[in-house]
Write a structure and sequence with these properties.
Layout lengths: L8 E5 L3 H13 L3 E5 L2 H11 L3 E5 L7 H10 L6 E5 L4 H11 L3 E4 L4 H30 L2 E2 L2 E2 L3 H13 L6 E4 L6 H10 L8 E5 L5 H9 E2 L11 E2 L1 H4 L4 E5 L6 H13 L1 E2 L8 E2 L3 E6 L3 H7 L4 H7 L2 E4 L10 H16 L2 E5 L1 H8 L6 H16 L1 E4 L34 H15 L4 H8 L3 H10 L4 H7 L1
Parallel strand pairs: 1-2, 1-3, 3-4, 4-5, 8-15, 8-16, 9-12, 12-15, 17-18
Antiparallel strand pairs: 6-7, 10-11, 13-14
Helix pairs in contact: 2-3, 13-15, 16-17, 16-19, 17-18
């Protein structure tokens, strides 16, 4: 063990005073800092005061046993690597505890010191890694990044804070926001910050499936359950066992299916279509909606009891038009991803383009922004994204033409009906005339690299533009 590190804190829980005192004394000699508790109830209090990195708990205790202790800690959002001590005959319960509540390992009494020390050191290493990852994630969130969500505005920092708070718990989360605001990304952040991050993340869009198929997708079906059911199929709840299930656009779920979903959420058991038995599932449910569910309740299209079951921890996502200060940061992150996707080498985006994007209302939110940036990255290829690379709706009547953004030269006037290639060629020719055939200066004004300019001129063949450029 590396004693140069700050000692890992170990909380030892055992109702037998002699046993816990002896364990604490032994563990302390190995370089750990220890605290003890006589049962689960006392342990819950000391977790908040002592903040242990590792928990060692007996399984059978009065008032609150080890299994109940771990369940309470999990529900409170504590993810402490735990070792379960068990007497002969309780092995099955210990294994269930490990499986259901994520305990690190179990040890049978009488305890073998060498085995205990080895497991403690491994659990302490895991605890340090979890803490380091959490600290890194928190630092990134303060810099405007949380998972795949980007934003340094006050509204997004509030969202990040809510995501960090709810992720370690088992509470149901309802993410609300317009289409394109990043609801699935927020759900993925909840998953990645939780103790379930090693499990599956499964998403289903309730609006994309017809009523005849959604129950099969959610709960699965047996072979022959309906026409076309040629084999047994697991549903999303089974596929998400041990992880997180996102029910996207929950407001569009058919009304009859909502009752069946509510039962699964309450009982944690699913029955495949055509099946006779029930299957126990351990799933953290996150729901998302782009419409106010309260309105759907008043219209009678959404169950009120299901709403209250899902709306334990609501998180509203702001539309992009309310956080335009985040556009440069989001655009920079998108450019990095899209360069990799399309093999481009775009380095940045001109302030003139950012100004035009700031004047846009963004009805499609971040999804629309991604589409705009993707088009611009492809058009630019490398260098800087200029306002000329933006879609037509950004070329407003009062906006200056691309040449005028960096010079006092003439603007381009083109008749309706010209192609984009013809317009681009005309712009290049006029820019070369304005710079007196200085190709380096022309490339700067056009917002493209010198190599890109040469390639475009080469593509014109024996054109006047190429002749003038080589003059």
């Amino acid at each position: 063990m590396d004693h140069s590190r700050v000692p890992t804190r170990v909380l030892i829980v055992d109702d037998e005073e002699t046993q816990r005192t002896a364990l604490a004394s032994m563990v302390t000699t190995w370089g750990f800092q220890t605290e003890t508790a006589a049962d689960g109830e006392e342990a819950l209090r000391k977790v908040s005061e002592f903040h242990p990195g590792v928990l060692v708990t007996d399984l059978m205790m009065p008032r609150m046993d080890g299994k109940s202790l771990l369940r309470n800690l999990q529900e409170q959002g504590h993810s402490i690597p735990s070792l379960v001590l068990t007497a002969f005959g309780n092995l099955e319960t210990a294994l269930e505890t490990i499986h259901d509540l994520g305990a690190y390992w179990f040890l049978e009494k009488p305890i073998q010191p060498r085995e205990l020390r080895l497991l403690l050191e491994r659990a302490a290493t895991q605890s340090r890694l979890v803490e380091r990852a959490a600290n890194l994630e928190q630092q990134l969130s303060y810099q405007g990044v949380l998972g795949e969500l980007v934003g340094n505005s006050r509204s997004m920092q509030s969202v990040f804070a809510l995501l960090r708070q709810v992720a370690p718990s088992k509470a149901a989360v309802l993410i609300m926001g317009e289409s394109g605001t990043g609801k699935e990304l927020a759900a993925r952040a909840v998953h990645s910050l939780s103790s379930r991050s090693g499990g599956p993340f499964v998403a289903i869009n309730c609006a994309a499936l017809p009523e005849t198929l959604i129950e099969s997708e959610l709960f699965g079906h047996e072979k022959g359950a309906f026409t076309g059911a040629l084999e047994r199929r697991a549903g999303c709840f089974e596929l998400a066992h041990g992880g997180t299930l996102l029910l996207d656009e929950i407001g569009d779920m058919p009304f009859p299916t909502q009752a069946k979903l509510l039962r699964v959420l309450e009982d944690s058991r699913v029955r495949r279509l055509g099946g006779k038995g029930e299957i126990t599932v351990d799933v953290r449910v996150v729901a998302a909606t782009n419409k106010p569910l309260e309105d759907s309740i008043r219209k009678g299209t959404f169950r009120e009891d299901l709403f209250y079951r899902l709306n334990v921890f609501p998180i509203p996502l702001p539309p992009l038009r309310e956080r335009k200060d985040d556009i440069p940061r989001i655009a920079a992150a998108l450019i990095n991803d899209l360069n990799v996707k399309h093999g481009c080498r775009v380095s940045d985006i001109a302030q003139s383009a950012l100004d035009r994007m700031a004047n846009h209302n963004w009805p499609g939110n971040v999804r629309e922004l991604r589409n705009v940036i993707e088009r611009a990255v492809i058009l630019a290829g490398e260098g800087t994204i200029n306002s000329s690379h933006l879609p037509l709706q950004f070329q407003t009547a009062d906006a200056k033409p691309p040449v005028a953004e960096t010079s006092s030269g003439p603007a381009v006037t083109l008749p309706v009906g010209v192609t984009i290639d013809q317009a681009e060629r005309a712009l290049i020719e006029l820019t070369l005339q304005h710079t007196k055939n200085n190709k380096t200066r022309a490339a700067e004004i056009l917002g493209i690299s010198l190599k890109t300019l040469f390639n475009k001129l080469k593509g014109y063949g024996g054109s006047e533009a190429e002749e003038s450029a080589s003059a």
